[in-house]
Amino acid sequence: MNSPAWLETMLLGNTVLDWAVALGWAFGATAVIVLVRRVVSHRLAVLAARTETVADDAVIEALKSIKKTYVLLLAVGSALAWLHFPDAAHTAIRRAMIVIAVLQAIRTGNVVVDFLAGRYAARKDGLDRTTLRGLSHVGRLILWITVILVGLEAGGFEVKTLLTGLGVGGIAIALAVQNILGDLFAAMSIVLDKPFVVGDAIAVDQFEGDVVHIGLKSTRVRSVNGEEVVFANADLLKSRLRNLTRRDGRRYVITLLLAPSTTAERVGHVPALVAEAVAEDGRSTLQRSHLIAAGLNGPEVETSLFIPGMDFTQGFEIRQAVLLGILQRLEREGITLARSATVAP
Questions:
Q1: What percentage of residues in the chain have a pLDDT greater than 90?
Q2: 249-344 has which CATH code?
């Protein structure tokens, strides 16, 4: 039986029948692949519910990440390969398919990396968000480099020559971007060594604040005044950094400068009065209270308090209560101060 004449009409070097067969094959293959993906995902989901392994769950996530659009484009590209086109057109189609395949591979890889990192974090109770984010970044970077190099090799590019050229020019590039690379390596050092994590209160020189974000190039810290300060990662690690979160509390030093006319007997009673005030409040620990100097300005009694917890407001309230208790006892005993007491955190 002869086909209708219009099916033999030439369109871009191919008959309409050839185009119809190619496109029909593309859409049919797409439908089959999508159906198989759905069936396999369902079967694996049933199997994964009975096991505790991560591999089957990772495969399910990988299958879910496959985009129907990419499948259709790849099917159309493979169908077009059977049609008659100039060599340049076939080369362009093949490279377009490689680009689509690389995009899908990166998409699937990102999903799998995030899934595995999340599962690993769930099993490691002490794993913080910063480390998890760093592991995901490293995994994605390795994935992207690998997929892109494979895609370039499949596209006919000389990857070995490219890598050799990068090796020769790498020194010049490294010198040009050494500050950026320094921040990147500093970010990796922060992630792996963990001198601080998101949420920690840190002090850098005279600045104090809470870490709100750790990026690949910079770290953002929210100060106690509410302003956000951005530190370059490399500069941050070069500074003298104190992690205020990783301690049980704060130490406060109270210096009482007594009036020069205060007798030695009354000066000797001051540490006991301080101990009474601390004990009455009950929210801090007295570490020491001693006479440390006796000069023309008067005797000096220094007291060291340890207040548990990292809450600034609570610390000030406890310190205030202790100071009021000390002042009440000094007033009761008739002991006067030469000037206002000074307190250093």
A1: 6
A2: 3.30.70.60
